[in-house]
Fold each of these.
Amino acid sequence: MKPMHTSIFVQLALCLLTSLAGLAQPAPPKPVGPLPSANQLRWQKMEYYAFIHFSINTYTDMAWGLGNEDPKLFNPTKLDCRQWARICKEAGMTGIIFTAKHHSGFCLWPSKYTDYSVKNAPWRNGKGDVVRELADACKEYGLKFGVYLSPWDRNHADYGKPEYITYFRNQLTELLTNYGDIFEVWYDGANGGSGYYGGANETRKIDAKTYYDWPNTYKLVRKLQPNIVIWNDGGDRADLRWVGTEAGYVGETNWSLLNATGDVPEEMLRHGVENGNAWVPGEVNTSIRPEWFYHEREDRKVKTLPQLMDTYYNSIGRNGTLLLNFPIMPNGLIHELDEKAAQSFANARKEAFAVNLAKNAKVTASEVRGKSATYDAGKAIDADLESFWGTDDNVRNASLTLNFNKPTTFNRFLVQEPIRLGQRVKAFKVEALVDGNWKEIDKQTTIGYKRILRFPTVEATQLRLTILDAKGSPLISNLAVYNAPLILSPPVITRNQTGDIQIKPGDTESELYYTLDGSTPTAKTTKYTTPMKTSGGKVELKAIAYNPFTKQSSVVSEEKFDVARSNWKILSTDAKSAYQALDGNPGTSWQQPKNLAMPTDLVIDLGKEENLVGFRYLPAQNWWEEASIITHYQFEVSTDNVTWKRVSEGEFSNIKNSPVWQTKSFGPIKARYIKLRALKNTQEGSASGYAEVDVITQ
């Protein structure tokens, strides 16, 4: 017979072991798929930062410099990089990437490897350094600093030869050595074409995949700046990817993955690759105006608040980052309209995400990893992105439910994955408990670092996130719910070929008001009801949308129309569909016959003699028609359709990536007939296309 105290000791030991076993923590979830580097993760958390475009072509009103511009043109008498940095900081941005050298080859720092730089400009008596002033301003305002260095150089005599690569790397070394920490380096995808090239004035072509020897260039970059991320469109895979458009959005499905080698077609740029073997997240780059460099004519085309908010939701809200451009004026400052737009954008974001309704809700989960408090539902709403709700390894379908305890109104849903462990979620849905019934609000695919959903306002007592499928056990680091204020979209103003003006609202509740005298419209000015007949001359119209229930007004839409095209006739073709190029609708377009060899002409009779000072061309706006976009042109005029005079020729720079209105000016000339000749399109062998063609009269 055993002593009683021994038996009691054994029982106590067994109880202790049982208790310890219950307290044992489950193993952390293993990573799934490729993972972001420390640099990529740090970059992703920046979310929103600025592009700044400024160069010699700012002074020639060109989208791209040609490489032959005189350095004496560069004289920004009011240049203030502290103004740039202040505006970016107040806009909520975290950094600035600056065009140290664009395609013209003109350097905004005194590079010792070329005379084509600020050291031969009158600005600061040739002693200035814009890159230095901006780097210092970024440091002062707590912003990270990045540089854009164009691989293509239309000025340098050796471009296209091996010697140029040495020159390129020497300049890269200057920028990555002399200006402190650089968070990102940007290499544009435009490579080769016509240029000055030291006086050769010729066209040069290179193989963008091999010419720059990117692997060795990347090694140099990482040696000089170990904490940097590299953006490169084309060539060898870098840390970040372009998303296939400059319109300000990435695909709703957006994997932060690509394959490490091979071509990357537009579909992959837009959406990533679900089973890619390399972590290459998308950066959304767009400008606050239609084009990247400053053009005075775009002062009335600054993105509106609704457009900027759309861009936010379609970039950061889709697992991307947002790189928003400010063009610098010739005087060296950011325009006050751009500053105002950026500040309104910042205020609207703060207002939209001011109150997280999930913060005080009760949260429950269908599954918890190992039933451990380390991974329970509360980790999804604890405001700590390092903690997360997780499930057991074999789970692919699970849900989180928020109980608000009372009817609650909301219209935004935000969710995040801890991407340091990989991007996992393949499909999910969001439901709301409305009047005792579950109602599906939205159903989507990827989440990634951050996903934000917008939907019509819902009043519900509960909200449920259900992960429908994932590449591994689902992990959610943050879940938030908001009720964002309504922002009225400004109306869209168009004028058809007959001269009738139509104003369209962005919603079904708004009323429309307008003016024709240049004054600002209000709810007391003329109300729009039906299309307006005009005299056929020039018209300047301003309009607003007005909600009679909330008393809100949209920002003002403004359009300036030249002479009406009611009497115009197309002479170069009998196709009635060609008049889609004159119908005033940017959404329609016409293409030349596919069997027509280049060059192709569009000849138009204006109906009467006009005093012309320029023309405008809008390419097709549908992505599937981008092959038809004209890149190189000639424009001729005539009084009799027999004798023609060429008044403009050249290129529509960057038009494929930014298919906006192209405006070309020339000296006053009287003409009745015009001829737009397409010399080259974005894709060889494609038919030239036109969404709209117009003239500018004196």
Amino acid sequence: MKKLQLLQTGWAGLLVVAALAGCSNSNNPDKQPGSAENEAKPGEGIQGRTITFVTGSHPWVDVIKPLIPQFEKETGINVRIQGYFEDQLTQKLTVQFTARSETPDVFMYRPLQEGKLFFQSGWLEPLDAYAGQDAEYDLGDFSPQSIRSSTVDGHLAGIPIVTEQQILYYRKDLLKEAGIEVPATIEELEEAAAKLNHPEQGVYGFVARGQRSPLVTQVSSFLYSEGGDFIKNGKAAINSPEAIKAFETYGGLLRNYGPPNAINMSWPQASAFFAQGKAALYTDANSIYRALDTEESKVRGNVGFAPFPSGTKGSMPYNITSWGLAINPKSPNKEAAWAFIKWASGKSVMLLTQQAGNPGPRSSVWKDPRGTIGFPEQLAAVFRQTVNGGIDHDRPQTVDVAAAREQVGKIVQMVITGETDIRQSADQANAALQALLDEEAE
């Protein structure tokens, strides 16, 4: 609790200074796509209300914006939109909530990065009563993993709108030329990376995120597939045998078969490297595929998609809610805010957002053939295979997520830079993570 108070105070002080300085419905094809009428008149009884909707910078927003006038017309609810880049969004929300502002009424947020801090700070309205008691909304249609990703302390803190799973990207042409099958296990991934590693020809066997904090989400699937986790039974577990094996595998792939500057790569750099034709294998979120399918991509048409390879405990990739919608507890327009969320995350609108390439959490949309037209056929098959499996988090589940990621990332980076024995460093990092957990529990 002390840690939570420090985080709130630190954010508020820093950010206030900065601020001063500066489809049709699948059950009824006669209804219009995105129509609020498809979702049982969510605005009934609250016409004339105005809500402020704060968004992040995401392709999902590009689909929703043109549909909002239709929602306004059919419900009588006016929607004011404010958009920010990811880091700006967090800053904006923190300043507003610290000041106990009544706005925004509804907003986008990242459940696994900010959810625990925001909820325990009293900045997220519990949505259990709204969603769980509305049979037509069909909360059971959402994947269990997406709901768990959005749940804090037993309460539904937000509604999932965009999900991600880790998959394997590979060069179809290079694997075919080398006579190599698509890796189905992590061991096969290592073997394929070794055979396809030809830096003298400008092609490396493997690429992935190597920056300290960004790599944590991607090493998580390696960790889970070996039977480990960042935290087990409330205790830090990043020095377990399973964790050591996973960190050595991921770091070893980048050290032995990755580019020399891998340690400086987050997803934009790693995906660009792969898109330039400089790597044969690449593991990352399935949403990254857009960056590989541009006109500038040198591998366009030669990218294959496969489920995350199996480890000792099988294929256990993360399967998370990357973006959700939430309500400000101070809002005087909670019913109108919920009406908007109900519409935006309803089956008909989610069909439209998913058709535009934004993977969603609703099982019915994935079962609908129209729900996968926004993805390459092979990728859509992988989506359907993985959407209801995997692990519901991709980073340590703490209040101070950044500090926890730091401890994990530095262990993996030691492997990338050539450290051969990380056990002592892992013990030290584990002790630091445990101290963080103990402090947050006070």
